[in-house]
């Protein structure tokens, strides 16, 4: 398998020449060269141009673009173009359109208006994929294939009749017998017992709460169905274009919740993702870092491709703030710090028309004579100097469990705190506090091997199988400090509550027994003794004889009862947090766990400054990233800063949003 360009940190983005007259293409290539662009993603939304009518292809324009790019030595991540069908296809076959929960058709006029189960759509998409693969498989510019685009960004869940049939087939494969399905879904409740497969429907809008396991299975089914589509295109590419890596861009972002990427990642030759900073989040830069660590986990610790982010504003938030000077470079290098070896953007040139005309780009509306483009060219220069760290890794002492299925289940119907408990909250909070302490963290699937991690964090891991719970217990036994938060290990993978006291799957490991949840209202908090407070959640907890109580509830109905506990287990420890403590109290607890596990963070890291190290067999590079609008001064090791191309040692001052990537004289 050819790997994605390895001699430099690839730099570029989505290139949509079909939106522009040919005169602009020459300017594009000249500016790309000037900015140090080394790759582009081509043809993502070009189906209507590639196949203007059924079966008639027009590849002449693409031939020319590819030729120009090849001459300029710009690598191409060539899209299969199947993300959005052309109007002629949906006009001829309106049955390919997705349908929402209320039975409304989602009409064309935007993008991705296709049903994941529709086989006619799929056959057209596969025909286009085949035609492109046959024509370009040995083109000198081709470096990677890009299947579709951001699968599930807009078209699932689809609730149409075709999906209903597909769902039944998927359910038969999962549950085999109707009895097993009835058992898994708990259909004895509310007279839902099925006597024939054809009675089963997608969880369309109904009178009140839908069956939670039906909803969970539907989300699994929709994710698997799109994966099936991806695999069908990928298999063609592997066959017709052997040796060229295939990817599709994930969306490992806070607000995207549709796909189970742990099931998708093993099928990517190179894992790639998109990330956009969401201005309304309380901690946007920490969310960016979390996305990087999650993507690195999906890539099995290997470097990954940042396929898209933005040079400045996006156009899809209520208000779209521009990035401050320096922020574009700093955000890109933050992704590299967390393991990206490719830095891609949406898009090369800002469009003059269409829904994204006010989305920032590498070349803004103002043109190349702009501060934004000058910063882009500076970034190209910096990335051009980072080739030496390509292939290096981030080494982490801490593993944090992340589960897409648990995210679905926690957001499912009829939960104790549907409005108040958002699945990522505990994971993001702990990850943020670790980041501020300079502690690197791998974000892993439940069931991933935990050997070698000094600390294992299990945040709101609501669904756990017996085997997954056993792995966590084994990690503690082998010496890890395991930190579990509330609402973990509650249910089986079919979302059946484990009996005998929560958290059923982890009760023994933690030496605690929860008799009842006491979720807190928005804005409500509970005092903790000796210090601090908790929010979001609390629990009526009893502890075993060998379990130490680190904190009690200080007021309210749980006053005097245990809130945070810790227990020695084999060579390690198991800590339980039954509320979400405020940052200070949680920070103190983390400090205790980290120091007991012997984990020391990177010096200089703080709420404002991120410090992350990438290492190879012989060298190491320290990323120092100022995430604030103020200058910062901190101590750094002796080395060479590849950003400013200068020797550094001892005290280093970074300007607002400034950064350094220090090749350390003594590798760590
Ligand atoms: C991504 C998408 C791009 C563009 C971008 C805008 O979701 O892949 O095509 O729409 O967002 O931020």
Give the name of the CATH architecture of the largest domain.
Answer: Alpha-Beta Barrel
Assess the beta-strand content as a share of residues: 15-25%
Overall geometry comes to: globular
**Structural domains: how many:** 3
Structure class: alpha/beta
Can you summarize the main beta sheet? 10 strands, mixed
The H-level CATH homologous superfamily of the largest domain, spelled out, is Glycosidases
Present as ligands are:
beta-D-galactopyranose
Low-confidence stretches: none
Taking strands numbered 1, 2, ... along the chain, how are they ordered across the largest sheet? 12-11-13-14-21-20-19-16-17-22
Number of strands: 27
Q: How would you characterize this protein structure?
A:
It is a single chain. The chain is α/β, with parallel strands linked by helices and 668 residues long. It folds into three domains: 379 residues, Glycosidases (TIM Barrel, Alpha-Beta Barrel), CATH 3.20.20; 200 residues, Class I glutamine amidotransferase (GATase) domain (Rossmann fold), CATH 3.40.50.880; 56 residues, Golgi alpha-mannosidase II (Immunoglobulin-like, Sandwich). Helices cover 30% and strands 21% of the residues. The chain is built from 17 helices and 27 strands. It has a ten-stranded mixed beta sheet with strand order 12-11-13-14-21-20-19-16-17-22, with helices on both faces. It has a nine-stranded parallel beta sheet with strand order 5-4-3-2-1-9-8-7-6. It has a six-stranded antiparallel beta sheet with strand order 10-23-24-27-25-26, with helices on one face. The longest helix has 29 residues. The chain is globular. The chain starts with 9 loop residues before the first strand and ends with a strand. The model has no long low-confidence stretch (mean pLDDT 97). Bound molecules: beta-D-galactopyranose.
């Amino acid at each position: 398998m050819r790997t994605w360009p390895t001699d430099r940190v690839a730099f570029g983005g989505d290139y949509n020449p079909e939106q522009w007259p040919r005169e602009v293409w020459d300017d594009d290539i000249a500016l790309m060269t000037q900015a140090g662009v080394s790759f582009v993603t081509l043809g993502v939304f070009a189906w209507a141009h590639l196949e203007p009518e059924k079966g008639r292809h027009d590849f002449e324009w693409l031939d020319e673009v590819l030729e120009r790019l090849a001459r300029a030595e710009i690598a191409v991540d060539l899209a299969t173009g199947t993300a959005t069908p052309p109007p002629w296809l949906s006009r001829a076959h309106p049955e390919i359109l997705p349908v929402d929960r209320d039975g409304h058709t989602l009409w064309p006029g935007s993008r991705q208006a296709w049903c994941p189960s529709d086989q006619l759509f799929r056959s057209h998409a596969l025909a286009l994929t085949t035609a492109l693969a046959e024509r370009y498989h040995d083109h000198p510019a081709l470096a990677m294939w890009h299947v579709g685009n951001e699968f599930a960004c807009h078209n699932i869940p689809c609730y149409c009749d075709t999906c209903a049939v597909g769902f039944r087939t998927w359910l038969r494969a999962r549950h085999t017998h109707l009895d097993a399905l009835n058992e898994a879904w708990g259909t004895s409740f509310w007279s839902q017992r099925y006597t024939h497969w054809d009675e089963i429907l997608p969880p369309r809008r109904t009178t009140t709460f839908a069956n939670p396991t039906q909803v969970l299975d539907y989300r699994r089914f929709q994710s698997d169905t799109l994966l099936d589509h991806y695999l069908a295109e990928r298999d063609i590419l592997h066959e017709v274009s052997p040796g060229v890596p295939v990817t599709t861009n994930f969306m490992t972002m806070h607000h995207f919740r549709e796909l189970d990427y742990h099931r998708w990642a093993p099928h990517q030759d190179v894992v790639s993702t998109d990330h956009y900073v969401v201005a309304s989040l309380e901690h946007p830069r920490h969310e960016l870092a979390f996305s990087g660590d999650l993507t690195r986990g999906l890539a099995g610790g290997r470097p990954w491709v940042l396929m898209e982010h933005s040079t400045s504003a996006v156009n899809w938030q209520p208000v779209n703030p521009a990035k401050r000077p320096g922020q574009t470079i700093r955000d890109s290098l933050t992704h590299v710090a967390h393991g990206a070896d490719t830095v891609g953007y949406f898009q090369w040139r800002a469009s003059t028309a269409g829904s994204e005309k006010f989305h920032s780009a590498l070349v803004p509306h103002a043109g190349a004579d702009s501060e934004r483009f000058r910063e882009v060219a500076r970034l190209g220069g910096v990335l051009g100097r980072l080739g030496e760290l390509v292939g290096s890794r981030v080494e982490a002492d801490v593993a944090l469990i992340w589960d897409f299925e648990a995210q679905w289940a926690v957001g499912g119907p009829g939960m104790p705190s549907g409005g108040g408990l958002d699945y990522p909250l505990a994971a993001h909070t702990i990850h943020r506090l670790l980041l501020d302490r300079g502690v690197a963290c791998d974000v892993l699937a439940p069931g991933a091997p935990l050997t070698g991690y000094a600390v294992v964090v299990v945040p709101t891991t609501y669904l756990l199988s017996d085997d997954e719970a056993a792995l966590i217990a084994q990690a503690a036994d082998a010496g890890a400090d395991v930190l579990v938060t509330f609402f973990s290990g509650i249910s089986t993978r079919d979302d059946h509550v484990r009996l005998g006291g929560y958290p059923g799957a982890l009760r023994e490991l933690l030496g605690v027994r929860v008799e009842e949840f006491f979720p807190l209202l928005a804005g409500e908090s509970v005092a903790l003794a000796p210090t601090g407070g908790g929010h979001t959640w609390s629990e009526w907890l009893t502890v075993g004889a060998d379990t130490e109580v680190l904190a009690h509830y200080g007021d309210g109905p749980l006053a005097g009862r245990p809130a945070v506990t810790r227990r020695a287990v084999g060579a390690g420890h198991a800590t339980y947090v039954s509320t979400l403590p405020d940052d200070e109290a949680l920070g103190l607890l983390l400090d205790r766990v980290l120091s007991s596990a012997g984990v020391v963070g990177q010096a200089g890291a703080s709420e404002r400054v991120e410090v992350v190290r990438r290492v190879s067999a012989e060298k190491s590079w320290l990323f120092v990233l100022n995430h604030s609008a103020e200058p910062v001064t901190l101590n750094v090791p002796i080395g060479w800063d590849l950003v400013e191309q200068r020797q550094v040692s001892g005290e280093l001052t970074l300007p607002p949003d400034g950064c350094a990537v220090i090749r350390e004289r003594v590798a760590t």
